[in-house]
Amino acid sequence: MKELFQHAATTDGITVRVAVNFLPEQSQPDADKWFWVYHIRIENGSHEKVQLKTRHWRITDARGMVAHVDGEGVVGEQPLLAPGASHDYVSGCPLETPYGSMEGFYTFVREDGSPFEVRIPFFPLAAPATAG
């Protein structure tokens, strides 16, 4: 089955695409635990090699609580992308509410060593309605 990327943003020739899915089997609504998995594809549409160095996420839950998550690379990697190349990874996000959102940016470095930020598009996290 082909993954459907619902959200995308392009910065300086780098496109970030996001597909997000709620995982009911990993969630426990009775315990205020909801879990989503997201698949990200980073595409280098520029004319030079770039390397992803760090990530910054802004995760907001339904109560308006905001968590900022910073770290090196993505899932333990700092991919180097040649022109035309792409990098895919999958990660997850737990929340204590049935909906929220994520957005952020990656910091990349160009071949000359200069850093630049690439936007990660805003995407909602929404659990399906449940009878209750």
Gross geometry: elongated
CATH homology-level superfamily: ApaG domain
Please, how many domains? 1
The SS-based structural class is mainly beta
Q: Helix share of residues?
A: under 10%
Show unreliable segments.
Answer: none
The total count of helices amounts to 0
Classify the fold: give the CATH topology.
Immunoglobulin-like
The largest β sheet comes out as: 5 strands, antiparallel
Query: What is the end-to-end distance?
Result: 32 Å
Number of strands: 9
Characterization of this structure:
This is Protein ApaG. Residues 8-132 form the ApaG domain. With 132 residues, the protein is mostly beta strands. It has a single domain (7-125), classed as Immunoglobulin-like (Sandwich). The chain is 0% helix and 61% strand. The protein contains no helices and nine strands. The chain has strands at residues 7-11, 14-22, 34-44, 50-61, 66-72, 80-81, 86-95, 99-110, 115-126. Strands 4, 5, 6, 8 and 9 form a five-stranded antiparallel sheet that branches. Strands 1-2-3-7 form a four-stranded antiparallel sheet, with no helix packed on it. The model has no long low-confidence stretch (mean pLDDT 94).
